[in-house]
Amino acid sequence: MTTTEASRSTYSTDLDLFSDEVLLDPFPHYRHLRDLAPVVYLSKYDLFGLFRYDQVRTALNDWETFSSAQGVALNPIANEAWKDSILCMDPPRHRTIRKVFDDALRPKFVRKVAGDLDVQAHEIVDELLAQGEFDGVTDFAHRLPVNVVMDLVGFPRDENRKKILGWAEGSFNFAGPLGDRQTASLPGAQAQLEYLINNASVDKLLPDSFGRVVYGAAEKGEITQEEAVTMMIGYANAGLDTTINAVAATLWLLAVNPDQWQAVRDDHKLVPSAFLEGIRMESPAQFFSRVTTRDVEIEGITIPEGSRVLHSYGSANRDERHYPDPDRFDAARNPVDTMAFDNGVHTCPGRTLASMEGHALFKALAEKVSSIELVEAPTWIPNSITRGPSTYRVRIS
Amino acid sequence: MHIDIDRGRCEGYGVCVQSAPDLFDLDDEGDPVILRADVDGDLTDAAALAERSCPMQAVQTT
Ligand code: HEM
Ligand code: SF4
Predict the structure, then answer these.
(1) Does ligand 1 have an atom closer than 6 angstroms to the CB of A348?
(2) Partner-chain residue, chosen from B11, B18, B19, that has the shortest CB–CB distance to A102
(3) What value of ipTM does the predicted structure carry?
(4) Which of B14, B30, B55 sits opposite A341 (nearest CB)?
(5) What is the number of the ligand 1 atom nearest to the C-alpha of A313?
(6) What is the pTM assigned to this prediction?
(7) Are the CB atoms for A386 and A245 separated by under 8 Å?
(8) Out of B29, B53, B57, closest to residue A336 by CB
(9) Which bound ligand lies closest to the C-alpha atom of A343?
(10) Could you check whether the bond before residue A92 is cis, i.e. omega within 30 degrees of 0?
(11) DSSP per residue over B3-27, as a string?
């Protein structure tokens, strides 16, 4: 016993990873955790943690050892509530449900429902150019993801859409460790569930939408009614905040790195790379977790069977062992091997859609805008899982 | 270097296209097409990046 404890002290930390202070500026802490050991033990939360790129990647590609079936959230309430969600399944069950998502998120289907993203993006940019100064989050980053995701899911085009966005923001705190932030998210989660059952029944959904497909599958008995409702929640929550954070972070990074914006303007082919670089730097989803199905040894440290293991996308994406000069925004880096969208069987099925939205917006900007100027620095609201600015002001011309 | 896609693993995310646009494209169905299966010189780096980046480990180089 003594020997185990003695060795654990070499890779254990009492850092409060989920304190407001750390969440507001996590990157120096991540560096410290990466340097501490290839696996760390977060004593305050009784969690093992993976913070280096190689270890995060290896774990995500080994679902048989790092299982999602006991949930990916960091508290038992969320893991119970989400137990029928795609996030919390292993193959082969995962495969059946995943097919519904994959089919519904193929570019062909997305184009049919979302219409021409480039046209919508140009409308947004034209309007904001006329306005001159605006909020980078609510005026720019919100609009396309909200329209696109809500149309794809098929939520009626009414005033409830604003509320759905609010619930989605809170929903990730629901998955964080127990505490004030988690408690505060509960009423929103409940309201969202009630909305889905009362106001988004199948007859009210837009035709040809993902929602119709999902409830259709339930009618045919391919999935249960509960799975259908959970899927609707999952889709709305997974697709909104993440994409909004990605777009908002990238615009902010371009504003504070004018030389990089100039590089994108000089060569529009850099747009996909620049958007991915914004995603790498800020990682819209910072963490999720898995549970080990056996004792796992990583470079001399043993994670016992049945341990909950946190993996940090945000830290992996800033690992100097993998990305040289990781804190620098390099529009030409093209970090296609980023961990921001996960890896392996749960790899984000919305990556293509998010990319289509981001590319449309930043291409429209590159075509029409010569300067992006930060007028008021971002404010951030700490979230247990996601990361993104909540407001900042920019001027474009 | 020879490039292959394991169709049993591929889910059509198109990350390979973003990694190496000279080597991959997506067809109208959204399935990847290999534009050049045998590469050398600088293109081997692009092929290796595609192999590393495919989220499904479907791109294989030999
Ligand atoms: C930049 C934007 C996005 C980022 C960074 C992102 C990130 C992620 C991550 C990290 C996961 C894995 C979670 C885990 O395995 O524990 C995931 C899964 C998922 N994402 Fe995304 N996502 C984005 C956009 C979207 C969009 C636009 C949609 C759909 C409209 C979407 C739908 C999903 C779904 C359904 C899953 C669950 C997949 C599964 O468990 O098999 N995401 N995403
Ligand atoms: S990146 Fe991999 S999964 Fe995606 S299309 Fe290419 S080969 Fe298929």
Answers:
(1) yes
(2) B11
(3) 0.79
(4) B55
(5) 10
(6) 0.93
(7) yes
(8) B53
(9) 1
(10) yes
(11) EEE-TTT-----HHHHH-TTTEEE-
Task: Output phi, psi for A290, to 5 deg.
Answer: -135, 170
Question: pLDDT of chain A along its 397 residues, tens only?
Answer: 444 544 788 999 999 999 999 999 999 999 999 999 999 999 999 999 999 999 999 999 999 999 999 999 999 999 998 888 889 999 998 988 888 787 778 766 777 776 689 999 999 999 999 999 999 999 999 999 988 888 888 888 888 888 888 887 778 999 999 999 999 999 888 888 888 778 888 888 888 888 888 888 888 888 888 878 888 878 888 899 999 999 999 999 999 999 999 999 999 999 999 999 999 999 999 999 999 999 999 999 999 999 999 999 999 999 999 999 999 999 999 999 999 999 989 999 888 889 989 999 999 999 999 999 999 999 999 999 999 999 999 999 9
Domains located in chain A, CATH noted:
3-396 (1.10.630.10)
**What CATH architecture is B3-61?**
2-Layer Sandwich (3.30)
For the Cβ of B10 lying below 6 angstroms from any atom of ligand 2, the answer is yes
Q: Inter-chain contact B12–A102, Cβ cutoff 8 Å?
A: yes
| Cα A346 to Cα A86: distance, rounded to the nearest angstrom | 8
CA pair distance A114, A148, nearest whole angstrom: 6
State the amino acid at position A193 in one-letter form: L
Instruction: Categorise residue A28: left if φ over 0, alpha if ψ from -120 to 50, beta otherwise.
Output: alpha
Residue B13 Cβ inside 6 Å of ligand 2? The answer reads yes
Q: What's the distance, Cα to Cα, between the start and end of chain B in Å?
A: 6
Start-to-end CA span in chain A (Å): 66
Q: Least CA distance to B18: which residue of chain A?
A: A336
Judged by CB atoms closer than 8 Å, whether chains meet at A337 and B13 is answered as no
Q: Rounded to 5 degrees, what angle do the CA atoms A22, A24, A27 make?
A: 65
